[in-house]
Amino acid sequence: MLGELLDKYKPLSPFYQNYKLANHLPMVLISLSKMGANHQRLEKYAKFYIDRYHLQTAVADVNMVAIDHKNWLNHLGCYSCYSSYLIFFKNEFSKFGKDDFLVHYLPQFINGFAVHAYHPLIRLALSVDAGDDNDIPYAFAYWAAGFWRLSDQKPNFDLGSHDDILSHIQSKAEFNKVQASGENIEIRLQKIVTQLDLKKLPVLNIHENSLKDIASVLAKLYFSTQNFTVLHGVTSCHALRTILPYFKSQQRQELAIRNYWLSLSVVYVMLGCPKYEDIPEISQLLPTWATLFQLACEHSDPHVIKLVYSCYEEYCHYGDQLYHAIAAQKLGLLQDF
What we know:
The chain is an all-alpha fold. Helix content is 57%, strand content 3%.
């Protein structure tokens, strides 16, 4: 039943407001369904969301470029090529099948996790999580049409742990002076990238718990700051964990984590290098996940809905109670802390 509903709304453009913002509907419907929302609630939310954000069906550009194997990399970042990319990736998906398709094409996007404020990555991961194979070509077409490469510059020194890296960034005046304004996360992030020498950002020393450590940093930073951009870090880290197995080799998985961390380092500079500390043990009794799910499913904000679901998944995977606290905090059920 969820699949039918998702298919019903797939023709909607992944963008709105002249490509500036992301259509969250498929991501939210999956999150709601995973938290127990019934079909009536999903339909009601879909109508609300489409009306509120004036979502439109994706329309092919009148001068639509034919995308094929020879030129598909040449048109990355062309918003008007979305429909062409969708045709291309649908054909490729039919040819490869799910697993081989993901293994083949994901590495091409390994330097673009931050595209459109991480939403193509999140959409892809939630589609994989929900078994919505039909949406995978849509997620890739979205990613390709909005693509921009974070950098081809390689950091030139290894500082080790994430804590060391953030302390290093905080200590450098050149990073603290960088500022960027803009109406959304991506515009600000792209402006920051033009001001930074990314080779001066140290590379993360990858080990078997690197993604867990990154997730912990993001959880602490979000709990401390309630920053909207950091929220996307929490949900995108869950997304990367979901799709990471499709970067088949250990070398590719390590590169994916390293590149993802580089994007977060740029985000950290963009936010003004906020300090974070270890969170004291949370002693108060937290609401049950069932209670949090019920409240999240009644909520109208797509970011609240997605965050609560991602927190639950990360809590189940890592066993970190902080995710439980973040979900309660976001829903207004955590006492002053």
